[in-house]
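Below sits our specimen:

——
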Amino acid sequence: MTPKIALKDIHKAFGPKKILRGVNLEVAKGESMVIIGGSGTGKSVTIKSILGLITPDTGQILIDGKPMGRDRDAFLAQFGMLFQGGALFDSLTVWQNVAFRLLRGAQKLPKSQAREVAIEKLRRVGLTPDVADQFPAELSGGMQKRVGLARAIAAEPEIIFFDAPTTGLDPIMSGVINELIREIVVEMGATAMTITHDMSSVRAIADKIAMIHEGVVQWTGPVAQMENSGDPYLSQFISGSAEGPIEAVR
């Protein structure tokens, strides 16, 4: 079966600094893939390459077996994204944030209809309609993250990216967000890719995990095999040990 996302021998350097050194990864349709790894190992560059925000030096990225065509807007319409920290627009109300793409995309909706969709998505992430006319600054961190999640799913994307979805949240709210992400991805039948350092998120969200180290996928497999992978890099990472093949930056 053709994977939803396929990365084939992706290389990317910024000047003399080599970030990706041959990333190979496949994500099946409807699968939730979580990418883990230390800071600076290439996780974010991998996601940005898929989105077309960064152009790889060599290699190929395929969506449904096809490279990105000339119609970039149509290509990007397949994706939704929950940014680290929420990345909400301070000058827009909550519903305008959620409906941002619906008000501007190729399939632009009337304002009243876009607002209805936004309120429905807010309900889906556990926020009441009265939140719609508030501004992001009036909301708690957990509520802002929910708004970001509502925005990510507003256009019913086929693929959703989650960038460190629980950063800055307390353990209880992190658990709530993890459960919401899992529920929504399953409900929508979406393909998901998540970047995180939070192992509780990995266990809650992932079908499969991929560990990137020094610009390559060091290990990939089902989350159920993570604890007994036999890979020393993965074992050190999930245990948080200072001892192992991954050098701790002091």
Q: What stands out?
A: Residues 1-78+159-250 form a domain with the Rossmann fold fold (CATH 3.40.50.300).
